[in-house]
Structures are given as structure tokens and as C-alpha cells.
Design goal:
single chain, alpha+beta
Length: 85
């Protein structure tokens, strides 16, 4: 038997978003970590160094699975930087 994760609700206020939180940007269709919150805009970052801004209303909290995906991507990026991948 497999378990299914329910889709988290979207943020209703930028005050709900904290630095370091894993979020899903539905415009970019990517998971990222919150780098900064500036008014209604949120700066996001991926382990590859990609940084972009998005309106808070386009984000939802990341799932546990998406958090693990980011961790795996960070591990792969570290290996690439060492020349091992």
C-alpha cells in the first residue's frame, strides 16, 4: 500500500513565509528555498545557484517529498562542483 500526500494550500499572506522554507513556484514549476521576502515578492534559490523572484501568491509550501528532492539536487550539485559527477 502506498501513501499519498495531499497538496498543501497556497500562502494567503507573505507573513506566512519564512526564510529557509521549501516552497513550490507554480509559475516556474520548480521547488526552491526562500531566500528573502520583500513585501509581496519572494526571492527563491535552488541548490544550483539559480535565483529568481516571484509574487507570494504564486507559491505553496513544499511537500516533504519536494524537500527531499532539493536535498538530492544539492548533493548532486556538490558532487559536480568536486568534479565527481
Amino acid at each position: 500500500m502506498t501513501t499519498t500526500e495531499t497538496q498543501p494550500a497556497y500562502f494567503t499572506s507573505p507573513k506566512e513565509i519564512t526564510l529557509g522554507t521549501v516552497v513550490f513556484d507554480r509559475d516556474a514549476d520548480m521547488v526552491a528555498v526562500v531566500r528573502d521576502v520583500k513585501g509581496l515578492m519572494v526571492d527563491l534559490e535552488r541548490p544550483t545557484g539559480l535565483i529568481w523572484g516571484v509574487a507570494y501568491g504564486r507559491l505553496r509550501p513544499g511537500t516533504a517529498r519536494e524537500g527531499r528532492q532539493l536535498q538530492a539536487l544539492a548533493k548532486l550539485q556538490r558532487a559536480r562542483l568536486r568534479g565527481m559527477a
